[in-house]
Specification:
By secondary structure, the chain is α+β, with helices and mostly antiparallel strands. The chain has one domain (7-251): Creatinase/methionine aminopeptidase superfamily (Creatine Amidinohydrolase). The protein is 28% helix and 24% strand. It has four helices and 13 strands. It has helices at residues 7-30, 37-51, 123-141, 149-162; strands at residues 73-77, 80-82, 96-105, 108-117, 173-175, 182-186, 203-206, 209-211, 218-220, 227-229, 235-237, 240-245, 248-251. The chain has a five-stranded antiparallel sheet. The longest helix has 24 residues, at 7-30. The radius of gyration is 17 Å and the shape is globular. Bound molecules: magnesium ion (2 copies). The site of one magnesium ion has 5 residues, from loops. Residues 111, 174, 205, 207, 239 line the site of one magnesium ion.
């Protein structure tokens, strides 16, 4: 069932989304060559704690997972697409990092992700990240009253495919509210004009994932969480929580621009 949120609830979700944006900005600023993924998780924990928010990731255990998730961010490096568990791994020159973070504030959830490089970037990685960001922007642009879920899926998928990238089938966006994952699913590829009609008050997490090698194949790492590309190529991920309103899409997890 898809729950429509009141404007007051959307405002409350915006407050949760701001905390997510702050956490992601802090993690990105802290990330550098030699910094460990566990240290980045600590940075995000500090932001959530300071804001009085809790993590919907910590202890999360969906049916596929062998263990409760142990962190407040997912940190997926290079060929890891999503769901990477932060470890003692220290970032290396040229790594491509995807960070996913959520927060729950006053009972409402926010969910967002970004990808970036540390050290000297590989040009192909910058193009991959830029494409994920552009696919997200296209998805948000399609998130308007009267459109359908398929229009968002098509907008996201078209950008990724036009750039020659793969899309991991079976993972994508979702409704969000008091729970991090609600109906409806928001696939990263689909046919325009199909699926549920978008209405004022729907709140969706839109989250393109792109595989640089062009194939769609992925597998689960031995930790039971991390999804990696089958061809070893790098992947990027971008996500925002977006409310559909009569006056257009409202991004609830927007981040302040990074200086420098
Ligand atoms: Mg997320
Ligand atoms: Mg999500």
């Amino acid at each position: 069932m898809v729950e429509l949120k009141t404007d007051t609830s959307i405002d409350a979700m915006h407050a949760a989304g701001r905390v997510v944006g702050q956490a992601l900005t802090a993690v990105r600023d802290a990330a550098d060559v030699g910094v460990s993924l566990l240290e980045l998780d600590e940075v995000a924990r500090g932001v959530l704690r300071e804001a009085g928010a809790t993590s919907p990731f910590l202890g999360y255990r969906p049916s596929f997972a062998p263990t409760p998730f142990p962190a407040v961010i997912c940190a997926s490096v290079n060929d890891a697409i999503v769901h990477g568990i932060p470890t003692a791994y220290r970032l290396r020159d040229g790594d491509l990092v995807s960070i996913d973070c959520g927060a729950v504030l006053d009972g409402w959830a926010g969910d967002s992700a970004l990808s970036f490089t540390v050290g000297r970037p590989i040009p192909a990685d910058l193009r991959l990240i830029e494409t994920a960001d552009r696919a997200l922007a296209a998805g948000i642009e399609a998130a308007v009253v009267g459109n359908r879920i398929g229009d968002i899926a098509h907008a996201v998928g078209s950008v990724c495919r036009a750039a020659g990238y793969g899309i991991p089938d079976g993972f994508g966006g979702h409704g969000i509210g008091r729970a991090m994952h609600e109906d409806p699913p928001v696939p990263n590829e689909g046919r325009p004009g199909r699926g549920l009609r978008l209405r004022h008050g729907m709140v969706l997490a839109i989250e393109p994932m792109v595989i640089g090698g062009g194939g769609d194949g992925y597998h689960e790492a031995p930790d039971g969480w991390t999804l990696r590309t089958n061809d070893g190529s790098r992947a990027a991920h971008a996500e925002h929580t977006v409310a559909i309103t009569e006056t257009g899409p409202r991004v609830l997890t927007a981040r302040s621009l990074r200086v420098g």
